[in-house]
Design a protein that fits this description.
Chains A, B: One of its GO terms (molecular function) is NADH dehydrogenase activity. Chains A, B: Keywords: FAD, Flavoprotein, NAD, Oxidoreductase. Chains A, B: Pfam families: Pyr_redox_2. The structure is a homodimer. In chain A, strand 14 and strand 15 form a beta hairpin. In chain A, the strands form seven sheets. In chain A, strands 7-6-5-2-1-8-20-19 form an eight-stranded mixed sheet. In chain A, strands 12-11-10-16 form a four-stranded parallel sheet. Chain A is built from eleven helices and 24 strands. The first copy, chain A, folds into two domains: about 10-125 and about 275-350, FAD/NAD(P)-binding domain, CATH 3.50.50; about 130-275 and about 365-420, FAD/NAD(P)-binding domain, CATH 3.50.50.100. Helix content of chain A is about 30%, strand content about 25%. With about 425 residues, chain A is an alpha/beta fold. The first copy, chain A, starts with 13 loop residues before the first strand and ends in a 7-residue tail after the last helix. At the A-B interface, strand 5, helix 4, helix 6 and helix 11 of A face strand 5, helix 4, helix 6 and helix 11 of B.
């Protein structure tokens, strides 16, 4: 079977299969030495999403293009199949997958490898609550964000009709965000700013009905940050008018409404699900050592190698990203961890277990609270307010590798800063 | 019924209803004197598409946002209902319409007016050929273009699978464009450049299968241009590798193939329908004077007023855009005509029939042939090659009113010009 797309002397190259195209898979594919490796990425999505720019892209001039990075690049002879991996046979070194391309029938494909890196990531966790999949929006990639933007536009048009009653307007313009982590907080902040600073100029008669609210089972938001920063975030939101409903348990979701244990039925126009992670089927199915509690993850050693359940090392198989964790060094499911592991692996893959063990370097944790406020923290410093917001901006810029995108984003931010976001609309 | 959204002294204002948000409706809403008028736009689309930028937006860094102009602006107190007009009662001055908002049930709405301007435009003409609506893509607005881009991406991924045969690749990568007017020619040129200059870098093993082809019933392309320019365009395309099939009659379209009188069955991956105009139902239904041959259009006098079929003037009712024509001065269905009529009407609406008659000023006719070639013509000058391409660029820039968009487009063009379109992908 032909799995090579580039190069002529491909026989002398090691064929590396990367499963997944998120932060981990994308970074690995970008950092590898292509004079040694022939790379095939297998992923249902040929585009990597820069999630820190996603909430901003929802509202800006550029649309989603600035938050997207195609895995295939001119400068990089990487091959990609748009498919979902069903299983991996570590013995015969074969990947079994099924193509997943819109408007075409799925096809079974087999790909053999010399080395494999699993970074299939996670999916959103609905915590077994019925109706979440059908009646809520996710914000994990630009397709999600695009669907969300269209829905917001539809909601505004519906609320704007002369036949829509004030009560119905209030229901429609209640945007409920479930999850008080950085994603939910950032989305609430950007949405609140865009609605009140920009959309309200075009629908002034609707502004009184706007209601952006965060719901979380925990007693606080941003619970991964230090307590004073998390309290600052909560107060900053409340002062501004973003409603925060902590200690709230959702038991069922329907079209346009949800049931909570504490407050009974709550109607909404849009429900955005921005909570934690759950496993994709491949992770459940793989026959290897996994963690036992919480989110079940693939357990690697400090060389990021996979092991069979009996402890034996699986030959030429590695795992990074949200679906993987190190047995002796458990780390959270963040982009920072995924990127650092991917960079380490790009350097140490050829050492095949004989490299210096992977070490994590704590860097930063940022959340945008809207209207030039924010919180920012690393292992040495923590910031709040305008300074944190500036740090957030510079961090966001550093995510994209492309200096031309940086120029365009900077030009746009500058124009917006001085003249307002005239063009912005959902 | 409340149709006012802005202003406090709205009783002293004339309530103007604009039907449609294309070039005509958008320009009129942008040029009106809002100290005299309260404006309600009724249109199924709250966004105006800058069609000259659409083909470029398909392939560039910005996505479609630069080709979009929302009707509602901060600076303009315009009200808009996302609805389709079913009928107009000129006697009681009432518009009957049905809301058209995705994921919400349609609702009947009535809006009364003091003055009305009909600019509902046209839809694509399938010439009664069965299957066109279901199995082809249009390129009339950014939603169309977005669907087309997703399809191209799917086609590339399908062709790229190791299980896809060379013969199937050839079928899939045949992009058939029906219509040799400026829209079809421009789209073919941009698609050809993007496929061969950018996409080919990421799918080098697929380039040999690329086949961009234009089909037209006429014996030439760009038949509205002078003959030597139209011949230049044809030769320029053929030399470069865009296939041009003139004098070809399509009799049926199916999923993935079409039947032609001259060449029998032709398979394709994508069929793009870029031909002439047909009437929307409202135009058919309106009880007023219309033209008798070809595309049936609403006939106005040189004050752009509508008349009953018995010749009597319809009080306070005007028509502009593609669906309208002047009895004594027939003009083509172009953006230039629509914009000039809209500007004239914005100035002369209050004169209500007593203004200086509308006159058309011939300006320019441009088509982009890709790779820095083009043809450009006005009543005094005609250009071809690189100079025409530069004129095309400056014309495209002049379409957008927003100077910040101009800056961003210029920065992007400059970066692309010097460094290539690394980011470009379908």
């Amino acid at each position: 079977m032909n799995t090579a797309a580039f190069g002529t002397d491909s026989d002398s190259l090691i064929h590396l299969v990367i499963v997944g195209s998120g932060w981990a898979g994308y970074t690995l594919s970008a950092e590898l030495d292509y004079s040694k490796y022939k790379v095939t990425v297998i992923s249902p999505d040929p585009i990597t999403t820069y999630t820190p720019l996603l909430a901003s892209a929802l509202c800006g001039l550029f649309g989603f293009k600035v938050a997207e990075e195609p895995v295939r690049r001119r400068s990089r002879p990487v091959s990609l199949y748009q498919a979902v991996v069903d299983s991996v046979d570590f013995g015969s070194k074969t990947v079994h997958c099924t193509s997943k391309i819109n408007s075409f029938e799925p096809e079974r494909i087999e790909v053999s490898y010399d080395q494999i890196v699993l970074c299939q990531g996670c999916k959103g966790n609905d915590f077994g609550i019925p109706g979440v999949g059908e009646h809520s929006f996710a914000v994990r990639n630009t397709k999600d964000a695009s669907a969300l933007r269209n829905k917001i536009s539809d909601i505004l048009e519906k609320a704007n009709l002369p036949t829509t009653t004030p009560e119905r307007r209030r229901e429609l313009l209640h945007f409920a965000i479930v999850g008080g982590g950085p994603t939910g907080v950032e989305l609430a902040a950007e949405l609140f700013d865009t609605m009140h600073q920009d959309i309200a100029k075009m629908f002034p008669h609707l502004e009184e009905y706007f209601n952006i609210a965060i719901y979380d089972v925990a007693s606080n938001i941003l619970s991964n940050f230090e307590e004073d920063l998390s309290t600052y975030a909560l107060e900053s939101f409340r002062r501004r008018g973003v409603k925060v409903h902590t200690s709230t348990h959702i038991t069922e979701v329907r079209d346009g409404s949800m049931t909570t244990k504490e407050k009974g039925e709550i109607k909404f126009g849009i429900l955005i699900w921005a909570t934690g992670n759950a496993n994709v089927p491949l992770t459940e199915k793989l026959n290897c050592r996994k963690s036992k509690e919480g989110l079940v993850r693939l357990l690697t050693d400090d060389q990021l190698r996979l092991h069979y359940t009996n402890g034996r090392i699986i030959r030429d198989a590695f795992a990074i990203g949200d679906a993987a964790d190190i047995e002796s060094l458990s780390l959270p499911t963040t982009a920072e961890v995924a990127v650092q592991k991917a960079k380490w692996l790009a350097k140490n893959l050829s050492a095949n277990g004989e490299g210096t063990p992977f070490k994590f370097h704590e860097k930063r944790m940022v959340a945008y609270l809207g209207a030039s406020a924010g919180v920012w923290q690393n292992d040495k410093v923590k910031l709040r307010g305008r300074l944190a917001w500036l740090s957030w901006r510079s961090t966001s810029l550093s995510w994209t590798h492309d200096w031309r995108k940086k120029i365009l984003i900077l030009v746009n931010w500058t124009l917006n800063y001085f003249y307002g976001k005239e063009i912005a609309r959902i």
